Inverse folding.
């Protein structure tokens, strides 16, 4: 796999070439991409002069995933997930949970995230003592019949 390596001096490159193959090297900054075995990450990190090492593809994918269109900024922005109390109506009863909300890192506007939204709703239903009978359908059985583990346990 490919590792992105930030290094201190050129002599570090020679040492890295004993572990893997340098796939490309930036001529402007001290970064290079090293093809090596996944298990070699620790070895790479311990090479003298290596300042930082992380899997190349994984980081790029994460960054792409964390960018989303912000309605207020009118452009793609990096996002962050914050936790805050949200109240959802569950079968007519307001239920407050600690929700995970995706917000714009620049202006703080809430950005819709279907996965987070569904997980929040599920948490609210569970907190209200409901059980899921089929996908998307919840009922609230009598307390004694409810075998669903409460999220606080
Ligand atoms: Zn924004």
């Amino acid at each position: 796999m490919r590792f992105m390596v930030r290094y201190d001096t050129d002599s570090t490159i020679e040492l890295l070439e004993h572990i893997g193959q340098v796939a490309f090297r930036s001529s402007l900054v001290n970064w290079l991409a090293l093809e090596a075995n996944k298990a070699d990450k620790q070895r790479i990190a311990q090479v003298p002069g290596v300042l930082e090492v992380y899997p190349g593809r994984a980081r790029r994918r994460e960054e792409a995933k964390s960018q989303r269109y912000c309605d207020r900024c009118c452009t793609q922005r990096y996002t962050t997930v914050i936790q805050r109390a949200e109240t959802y109506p569950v079968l007519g009863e307001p239920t407050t949970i600690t929700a995970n909300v995706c917000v714009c890192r620049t202006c703080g506007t809430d950005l819709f995230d279907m996965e987070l939204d569904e997980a929040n709703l599920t948490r609210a239903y569970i907190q209200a003592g409901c059980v899921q009978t089929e996908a998307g359908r919840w009922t609230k059985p009598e307390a004694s019949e409810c075998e669903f583990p409460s999220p606080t346990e």
Summary: The chain has a mean pLDDT of 85. Residues 79-145 form one domain. Residues 70, 72-73, 77, 104, 106-107, 109 surround zinc ion (CB under 6 Å). The beta strands are 2-7, 21-25, 31-35, 50-55, 67-70, 75-90, 93-104, 131-134, 137-139.
